[in-house]
Amino acid sequence: MDKVTDALKKATIGGEKKPKKDKKASAGDAADSGPLELQPPPAFIQDRLELFDRLFKEQQEELAKKPHDDILITMPDGSIKPGKAYQTTPAEIAKGISNSLLKRTVVARIDGDELWDLERPIEKSCKLELLDFNDDQGKFVFWHSSAHVLGEACERRFGCSLCIGPPVDNGFYYEMALPGGAAVQSSDWAPLENLVGKIVKEKQPFQRLEMSKEDLLNMFEYNPYKQHIIKDKIADGTRTTVYRNGPLIDLCRGPHVPDTSRIESFAIMKNSSSYFLGDANNDSLQRIYGVSFPDKKLMAAHKKFLEEAAKRDHRLIGKQQELFYFEETSPGSAMWLPHGMRIHNALTDYIKEQYWERNYDEVMTPNMFNVSLWEQSGHLAHYKDDMFLLDVDKEQFGLKPMNCPAHAMMFRHRDRSHKELPLRYADFGVLHRNEASGALSGLTRVRRFQQDDAHIFCREDQVKAEVADLFDFMRSFYGMLGLTFKLKLSTRPENFMGEIETWNRAEDRLKEALDEFASSGGVEWELNAGDGAFYGPKIDIAVLDCLQRPWQCATIQLDFQQPINFSLEYQTAEGAQLAEKSGEKAAPPTAAPAPVDAATAEQDKKDGKKKPLLVKKPLSLGSARPVMIHRAMAGSIERFTAILCEHFAGKWPLWLSPRQVIVIPVGMGFLDYAKEVAALLKKEHIYADVDSTGNTLQKKIRNGQLAQYNFCFVVGDDEMKNRKVNIRYRDDTSTQARDVPVALDEALEKLRKLKAERGIYNPFPPKKEEKA
Predict the structure, then answer these.
(1) Is the C-alpha dihedral spanning 519, 520, 524, 525 positive or negative?
(2) Which of 189, 212, 219, 628 could bond 268 through an S-S bridge, CB–CB 3.0 to 4.6 Å?
(3) Is the pLDDT of residue 46 over 80?
(4) Which of 226, 455, 611, 631 is an active site residue?
């Protein structure tokens, strides 16, 4: 997949800087959307095709000259298929097994990691997997190909300059600049889908061509956005690929489906404005989102899923239940309302209880540090664009986007012994990350947030036990909430820090822990090669909600690099014995920089001298480096709240609920008793309200149910005289119309127990009728 946007530098092309707001389509627009496509087509299309045809012919001639040596192709079941190098294709192998296999196969995977076009000849003996739409990588290839089809339709309709068209988690999009800075209208959707239907029927093959940088610049000379990508991303003297389907030729690494007929169902979902490369200093573009499937039934199921997801949208529920909102004066920073804070506090209280049981120590660290700390940790080089930086007293500071460097400093502020390990620091401190404005989305993508962040410092021989405890923590936490999860081991990326041997050792430790967890009744794990953090491998945890949507929440990261960056060390048992025998105190860890007098400090500021980095130091005699484990269970509390909001559809379990009980008097004569009941509930730390309105009883009960109170306590004459309450449970319809009062003391005790257990059940079940 092309992921150029993350690596490209800022660029300014054209003049207009502000995104143009999409105009709402009027009835007239819908009725008259203009010609289906431009006639004649833009001149650049024919010029592009002529260059492609010439170079593709040359490539095919070169391919024909390749030696067709015998090769062996190993299938997942262990069977071996014979083939010819530069001649046999994955499609031929699939068809040789069955036509139905070929029809449902989207893309091939070679030797476990390289995706391969089905019609591209295999070059050497290899292991071959055939992936269908149900495979995550197969789905992304399918949606990537669909983006190209959308791109072709847009070029034919608008004569636009295409930018990028990647697959995303729920489909794909294409960005483009329309002639004259025009905007895409909703009235364009149907014509574009009509064009896509024609493209699919034409069964256009996807053709792969390798091109030089010079030829690419020539091919895309009409498109300033492609020009920028080529110049910035492709090194001089190197080659990359383009793919053609019909008249479209696009800069792309591929791979793709064999031809456009695979896309049986296609729909445009929305359109919006965006900035080139996500930078507000760049041109305003148009973005069209779509989704596609190899089967019309899958599209119907997807649309039904979207309807249900829309009902559960946490932004809608947050507004309805008055949980949070956002102010324009602080984008990406939630304003937590009282009822929202009840949920926030309930989550953090549970996590803090777990910290107590699992021997964590809670700490607090500053929100702002001199950038020298981030240089020391290596984050400044990798993370600078995502930080909020400030100039203070002629020096540069940054709001912390994570806690790990501060916790490393806390570890090193005094001598450490092996007897102190493992040392577990937990921190709910406020974090800030400079997310692009276009990426902000409710509580799921924010700039200001808190994490249930913790860092464990331990010996290498303690790693397995610590990770096992984290798996137990995770299973208890998610299981209580009715969430399941998947595990992926993300290994060494290209921009890694440190030695390969250190990385290999860290990855082996995590593999051992994952295997043991899977064998003990946990979940199986997958390998996510090359997607680790720059300082260490990690276990990514995807939480699945009731709609089986994956959410990135928890993480476990093993880090051998930060202890080196900060010269962290502890005295080993052997070192302590050595010091005891010699009668000398072991050498302290890296000393902090010597204090500087005020006059020198002021002169340094005038001279523009930066705050010195901590001196990296080799290990002291008798000492060893700790392993640092980065971990979170909920991750961002904001994001986790959004996930739970949609998982429960706003019907919070009692222990999390911001509205737990509403006491409803059947008439104003029983209002005082209702208030007394509410006061007793409050003493039990249960959120209780009283409906003192003049509405009818049925209206009061209905309002309580719509507001998602867990329980309605109805009180009247009998209840007041006998100190009872008539209970209706939100999640059990059999209790909605019953008239069986419960003793008030019994009700209080059962709610107290339900909340303490954090249970999700009805403590007041209907009593079974006795048989006559």
Answers:
(1) negative
(2) 189
(3) yes
(4) 455
Is 339 assigned a catalytic role? no
Residue 14 phi, psi dihedral angles, 5° rounding: 90, -170
- Give yes or no for a contact between 626 and 563, defined as CB atoms under 8 angstroms apart: yes
Decide if 240 contacts 216 (C-beta within 8 A).
yes
- Whether the CB-CB separation of 172 and 290 falls below 8 Å is answered with yes
Among candidate residues 154, 160, 163, 404, the one labeled active-site is 404
The pLDDT tens digits of the residues spanning 72-120 come to 999 999 999 999 999 999 999 999 999 999 999 999 999 988 999 999 9
Give residue 686's Cα distance to chain centre. 34
Flag whether the pTM goes above 0.70.
yes
Q: Spot the catalytic one: 120, 630, 639, 730.
A: 630
Q: In which band, very low, low, confident or very high, does the pLDDT at 584 lie, cut at 50, 70 and 90? A: low
Alpha carbons 585 and 572: distance in angstroms, whole number: 13
What is the Cα–Cα distance from 133 to 25, expressed in whole angstroms?
35
List the beta bridge partners of residue 259.
Answer: 205
> Ramachandran region of residue 730, left (φ > 0), alpha (ψ -120 to 50) or beta?
alpha
Instruction: Decide: residue 513, CB within 10 A, 0-12 exposed, 13-18 middle, 19+ buried.
Output: buried
pLDDT at residue 419 greater than cutoff 80: yes
Q: Which of 453, 540, 545, 559 is catalytic?
A: 453
Which among 156, 244, 433, 724 is annotated as catalytic? 433
Question: What are the residues whose beta carbons fall under 8 Å from the beta carbon of 761, sequence distance 6 or more?
Answer: 754
432 is catalytic: no
Residue 453 bears catalytic tag: yes
Of the residues 157, 538, 700, 724, only one is catalytic, namely: 538
Report the C-alpha gap between 637 and 630 in whole angstroms: 16
pLDDT, tens digit (0-9, with 9 covering 90-100), for 325-378: 999 999 999 999 999 999 999 999 999 999 999 999 999 999 999 999 999 988
Note if 509 is an active site residue: no
| 379 is an active site residue | no
CA terminus-to-terminus distance, the chain: 71
Measured over the CA atoms of residue 699, residue 703, residue 705 and residue 709, the dihedral's sign is negative
For residue 160, indicate whether it is catalytic: no
**728 catalytic residue (yes or no):** no
Q: How many other C-beta atoms lie within 10 A of the C-beta of residue 373?
A: 22
What backbone phi and psi angles, to 5 degrees, belong to 268? -85, 135
Cα(403)–Cα(385) distance, integer angstroms: 17
